[in-house]
Amino acid sequence: MRCSLTVSSKRRILCVFPAYTPSFGTFSHAYPLMGGVKAFMPPQGLLVIAAYMPETWECRFIDENIKATTPEEFAWADAVFVSGMHIQEGQIHDIRRRAHAAGKVAVLGGPSVSGAPEKYPDFDYLHCGEIGDATDRLIAILDESCARPAAQVVLETKDRLGLSDFPAPAYEAVPLKRYLIGSLQFSSGCPYRCEFCDIPQLYGRQPRLKSPEQLCSELDAIVSQPGHPAVVYFVDDNFIGNRKATRDMLPVLVEWQKKNNYPLQFACEATLNMAKQPEILELMRQANFMTVFVGIETPEADALKGIDKTHNAAVPMYEAIETLNSYGLEVTSGIILGLDSDTDKSEQNLIDFIDKSAIPVLTINLLQALPKTPLWDRLEREGRLVHDASLESNVLFTRPHDTVVSSWRRAIAHAYTPERLFERFKHQCETTYPHRIKTPAAGKVTFTNLRRGLILGFNIITRVGLFSDYRKPFWKAAGYALKRGQIEAVFNMGFVAHHLIRFTREALRGEHNASFYAAKAAEAEAALERGFWANARRRFIPEREAA
Ligand code: SF4
């Protein structure tokens, strides 16, 4: 639903989403292969805010991952709304600078300001927390006046809007065809309390839910846009945070797919104990889920105790991964190096895990303390928070910083050596892809999909299959997939590997930070200097990567 306040003024709201700093999970190197794709995923939060604005207020939406905001667009606006994560901090400040230079009031909401409002002293209004009473207060203030206040005003949501009252995100305000994948939210919050994670504090431990019917109408809106992405990612913090709700929702999703000839594939993030839920897994298979991101964090079972993530050990790790694979779900894994429990053996244990699990995509990051987490509080007590932009993390590790960073470098070099990466994809051809349901061609054979497939096929054959130095391992795995009729797998491994191999080489040259959550100062500056078009070509990550 929209805001129910009665407003007397007409306002023009310019929503601007900052460019992302590239990471393993952004797939930015894959976009040039994909004909017209410029960005990773539509930003749910700011699209919901745009949809919530009073009906008489005009909204424009700019995702600076796709295009830079022009001076004319700033001039058009009465107020500029910005949202983003910590990793976008530099870009958030830059949008604020441009808004102020145009004489506009600047408002900041979203996860970064909600976690650390002190980072943003120069914004006029801070909207902390989710959409709710603070949003209504903000609308009332702007209805009264869009002049910049004499001092910063902080508005904090005490009373959240229920997810069942959320308006559908303003998908119509963004060109969905420019995104690699679509986004959708079913629930918010997570019942667990992993030490390093800010989700429970920001979004609560009691997952709140949309109705399955809400989801279906949002899916209708997505597929009504020509050229929409073929994959939609559930941005829920933990897809099985409320198992009963997920179990009740999935049959509705299956029906929606059947009714529409399976136009979409799905992905989500969840905890590894999902392996204990065969009913949910089978329903996910029927709904055409392809990938699940799991925060495995560490292969060392004892280390899970230290970060309060013992729920990951509910099923033996390899058994759990095999179970997910047997339902056609390719696992993507988050890994953290630099935990207090790390020893001299941790690097080798991780390398063994990468090889044995055969998970193709792993986001391997150094531990980073986020505000509003138990980890932050503990490290602050222990005097182990370091604020040095030249370092790769704000954590004073128990092992020497350089040792941890060197481990990270060796681990990513091992994981993304082309031969090993394509070997892991080959393993998926055998263990995972054959378990997926066969969907009718009718839902997929559209002019846009054919065109996209031709462009992607041409680019993969030329750029990966002919001109790359990893063409041999690519063809070895591709040949294996083709023999099994897994053409989609060839496309998928081609563009994913292309990004991962190239991004790893850049990271090993020192061009990227070892922590996903904190852009190195130099990188943030470089992002600003590159200019927005150049940034839009680089790219990003899920808005709230957790689980
Ligand atoms: S890391 Fe995942 S499982 Fe742990 S609290 Fe965060 S969202 Fe929940």
What features would you describe in this structure?
Strands 2-1-3-4-5-6 form a 6-stranded parallel sheet, sandwiched between helices. The relative contact order is 0.14. The protein has 20 helices and 14 strands. Strand 5, helix 5 and strand 6 form a beta-alpha-beta unit. 40% of the residues lie in helices and 13% in strands. The C terminus is likely disordered. Helix 15 runs antiparallel to helix 18 and helix 16 packs across helix 18. The protein is globular. The chain has 547 residues and is α/β, with parallel strands linked by helices. The chain has a domain of 134 residues: Rossmann fold (3-Layer(aba) Sandwich). The two termini are 28 Å apart. The site of iron/sulfur cluster has 13 residues, from helix 6.
